Amino acid sequence: MTRLGKTEKTIFGVAVLVLLLFSYFLYDDSLLFPKSNQSEMELIGSVATSQNDVRRKNLDTFSWLPATREDKIFDNDSIYTGDRSEAQIRLQDGTLIRIAPNSLITLNMKNGQMMLDLRYGNLVGDITQGSQIKIKSGAEEFNLDGGGKIEFKKSHSGNVDLRLLAGKVNYQDKKVRKSLEKEQPIAVSPQGVKALVKPTVELLTANNATFVRENPDDKMPFNWRGRGNIARFEMEVSPTADFNNVAVLKTTTEGKTEISEPLEPGPYFWRVKAYDRNGEIGLSETRQMSLLHLNVPVITSPGQNAEFQMELEVRDPSQLAISTEVRWSADSMLKSYHWQISQDEKFEKVVKEGNSFVQNTLTPRLPSGTYWVRVNGATQDKKISGWSAAVPFTIQVTAKKEPIPDRPELIAKDIKFRLPRPDERRPASEMAPKMEWTSVAKTRGYRVQVSKDLNFQKPQQYDVQDTSALWSQMEKGQSYYRVYAVSPKGQLSPPSEVGSILVEDMKPILTSPQLMEPFNNMSIFLQTQQEPFIWLEWKKVAGATGYTVEVSDKEDFSRILYTSTLPGNRYLIKSKVPLGKIYWRVRAEAQGDTPSTWTDKREFTVYHQKNETFVK
Predict the structure, then answer these.
(1) Which residues is 132 bridged to in the sheet?
(2) Strand (E) or helix (H) holding 19
(3) Which of 130, 181, 207, 596 shows its CA 20 to 30 Å from the CA of 215?
(4) Residues 122, 151 contacting (CB under 8 angstroms)
(5) pTM, two decimal places
(6) Which 3-state string (H, E, C) describes 24-92?
(7) Terminal CA-to-CA distance of the chain, rounded, Å?
(8) Buried (b) or exposed (e) across 191-228, using 16+ Cβ within 10 A?
(9) pLDDT digit string (tens) for 122-179?
């Protein structure tokens, strides 16, 4: 660092001194512009009180000097009060003038009469009884006399507003003289004097109104009606009734405004000020309002990243889906809800959505995958809350493995079946080989296979519902069959044991037997009336397994004396028979087959020794 030499130090010191000197001259120019000789100036009053920033300046000086208590006030002195500052000037005649903050006045004597030039701001003057003061504001001048307390206010329009606070004061200008009425302000303007009507404000938005915000910056409308020559309105919102802490201040020229500033939920007070063009201020009543924030619902179920796993018995893979319950908690102001389920977190792929009037819902069936769910609500007057936080969950649905059915057990293992003849009458159940097996639980039916070989290379195949089946497409000879149980999903059980089916050719039609003895129309003589021994004989018939014989004493066999079925081809009549003509006939029979037709009847005549017709 380079040190300053002696010369540099001298120059620097002189510069600082000059800077300080000029700074002082900016504050007090009395050395540059010497005051006029006060002995030659007319004393018009003094400073009675001075608070904070109060300054005075004479017309002949350039700078403002602090005005302190007991300072003298001379003709053409100007007094200025800054923000939160005020002063009181006592004139020689005892009149006391209080200067409000942010005001500027000039006092001078004109023709032996005090004249007060109000540049801007507010004054309160106590006029001594019998005194007179002239007021100037721009080009307007007027006199006040009498004794009393009066308020002066210079409005933004340039008019001077006067208000009599106490006593009796007269107003006079070039055109009119009148006595001021207490608390009835008047406006002095180039157009003359007129009564000053204070603006009024009527609030239109209801007291104790409740505003519900869906979002922190939702607008809240307020309305009022102003009366008077109003230039602007100021609306104030405060959490306290004294408005010491104003949370929102809105300025507008209309009788309405909207508040979008963020506010904490709770009760608030509000009011409106009306400023007219004469500077008068009208204040509305204070009303209350409440602010509520419409909180979003909170999903309580499913939890974050919940997983739902389940096995289902389904026939179609598209049926692999389940429903899940969604629950949430919500503000009591919400009366209905709307939910969405999406396959992405941004809800660009919404797959399901719906409405509910309660705080839960059952989702539609959802296949396996990851989903997000969210809910919003609506108040009774259709205000919509924001969406809840999206909650992800996963569904995993798999097909339940179906157990293999038990194998059926054959009831008919070895089946023999003879093909029926065209003329043969049988029940429908006996017109084809009948295969039977035991029932198996939890099946939808059975699969039957019939094959000519034990390996079932090219089997005939049938799906049936019952536990039996007729083989209508039967083939002659030896065949084999087996049965599977079929599950609801089509899964086959192990096969049953193998059964056999033997289909025989149809039997020939049984022919009637050929009768042998006794010959037709033969006579038989009996020696006694004891039991006879008469043999009936016929030829055997191929395929017959037995024969039925009928013996009658009636040609039409309407009365049968004896009948018998026997395996052989002879029948012995051992029982007593009546004398006279006897008739007999025979038919062939086979087990499971239709009997043959009856033979033609034969007859023989029985005689004995006492028979009167006996020939010796």
Answers:
(1) 145
(2) helix 6-27
(3) 207
(4) yes
(5) 0.42
(6) HHHHCCCCCCCCCCHHHCCEEEEEEEEECCEEEEECCCCCCEECCCCCEEECCEEEEECCCCEEEEEEC
(7) 194
(8) eebeebbebebebebeeeeebbbbeeebebebebebeb
(9) 777 777 777 777 777 666 777 777 777 887 777 656 677 777 777 788 877 777 787 7
